[in-house]
Amino acid sequence: MTATSRCSNLAMIAVAAIFEAATFGIKTQAATLDQLTPPQPHSPAKLAPARLPVIAHPQLDRSGRRRIGKASFYARMFAGRTMANGNRMDPQDRNAASRTLPLGTTAKVTNLKTGKSAVVRIEDRGPYVEGRIVDLSPATAREIGITPREGVTTVEVAPITVPLADGSVKLGEAAAEVLLAGNAKPYRRSDPAGW
């Protein structure tokens, strides 16, 4: 080998070493900057709803008053799981979950977009997502017009009966509506002419 080729080989090795050191330094510096830079917030459209803490003994709402909020429905994975009252979640039943209504409450849930209603029984706790006041069984959600694509909609939850702490039952704001509907008699024509 000639001295010139040795020098050019050494020069190439030196350039490669300098390039590698420079690249390593940039990589190290980038990693260090990433570690020091706080994560940037996502756009509001991409943020998931805030999760609420699970409270073992929530303050119960025994007032029987109507409430308006968001409703969602149980995911498929909850079918057959034990609910707060000890029963198994049946996707075809009229069970529902509420964070604040006492277990055993019956309530009329009305989809404010479609106007359709269903009567449910509170048997579970949840949903633990900010802004949601009730989780419905999939069958009930379908009945009032909540589609899987939509997933969440605004509803009115009007208690019919509310169990009290002493074991008695209080009538809620929707009790009168349900009692009137249950006592309604079909219209009869007494006049043969139809008047």
Keywords for this entry:
single chain; 195 residues; alpha+beta; 6-stranded mixed barrel; 7 strands; 25% helix; disordered C terminus
Summary?
This protein has 195 residues and is an alpha+beta fold.
Write up this protein.
This protein is 25% helix and 22% strand. The protein is an alpha+beta fold. A six-stranded mixed beta barrel has the order 1-5-2-4-3-6. β6 and β7 (169-171) form a beta hairpin. The chain is elongated and about 100 Å long. Mean pLDDT is 79; it is low at 23-37 and 186-195.
Beta-strand share of residues:
15-25%
Taken from the alpha-carbon principal axes, the silhouette is elongated
| Strands side by side in the biggest sheet | 1-5-2-4-3-6
Mean pLDDT: 79
So how many helices?
3
How can the largest sheet be summarized?
6 strands, mixed, barrel
* Helix-strand category: alpha+beta
Indicate the percent of residues in helices: 25-40%
What is the ordering of alpha helices and beta strands?
HEEEEEHEEH
Question: Distance between the terminal alpha carbons, to the nearest Å?
Answer: 123 Å
Oligomer: single chain
Radius of gyration equals 31 Å
Low-confidence stretches: 23-37, 186-195
Report the count of strand segments.
7
